[in-house]
Amino acid sequence: MGRPALMILVISLVTLSALHGMIIHVEAVDYVVTNQAETAPGGIIFNNQIGAGYAQQTMDAATQLIWGLFQQATAADRKDITQVPLLIVENIVLPNGQSVPAATSNNQILVNAGYLNSYMGDVKQEFTGIVYHEMTHVWQWNGAGQAPIGLTEGIADFVRLKANYPANGWAQPGDGTKWDEGYSVTARFLDYCDGLRNGFVAELNKKMRDGYNVNFFMDLLGKSVDQLWSDYKAKYGN
Ligand SMILES: [Zn+2]
Q1: How far is the CA of 26 from the centre of ligand 1 (A)?
Q2: Model pTM?
Q3: pLDDT tens digit string along 199-208?
Q4: Residue ranges per domain, the chain?
Q5: Is residue 187 packed enough to be buried (19+ CB in 10 Å), middle (13-18) or exposed (0-12)?
Q6: Phi, psi (5° rounding) for residue 170?
Q7: Which InterPro entries match (predicted)?
Q8: Which of 15, 77, 117, 217 ranks highest by number of CB atoms within 10 Å?
Q9: 94 CA distance to ligand 1 middle (Å)
């Protein structure tokens, strides 16, 4: 009599482990790192001082931090992305002719080898900070393209701040002339807002899934973004 019950238990365990395996498979993200600038000075620096293995680990660590900061515990909360490529390229030149350290589009990250070559300081630490910023662009919502660029860039630097990889020359708390100036200015302001309401940035990002409205600040904090910015500036005496 005990044998059929044992069989059912065994089958149940097999089913559970198969299901468990399936879930792990669905949630896995592949990070594919390719150095397309292997003979350029910055490509050689990447291979010698950073490496593809470290880059993959950092991309995974960034993803885990971002899902936590954005309160995206389940796959349904997140973008449906299973592969994120990162390419080391010789240079990245925007249509306006400006060369930039890194860029992300269509969930693909480009890192500029020329920038790595010219960087003065700990290049591995700088690369790590760049990965946190760019991985945020992979996962964040942008209000279906309606959010101000300064805000999406500010959220990316907010994540970099929370990862504890601030860049040299970053704005200090209270710096800047407007809330959506972008990058570290906006990151510091968002950090202030997050201090007023724990999880503010996560909730703001969630609201930006399908669209954008500046009143999201009012909805979450009970004050307009302009009022919040002047409160913030007053707090730091500038
Ligand atoms: Zn960016």
Answers
A1: 28
A2: 0.88
A3: 999 999 999 9
A4: 29-139, 144-238
A5: buried
A6: -65, 155
A7: Uncharacterised_BSP (IPR007541)
A8: 217
A9: 13
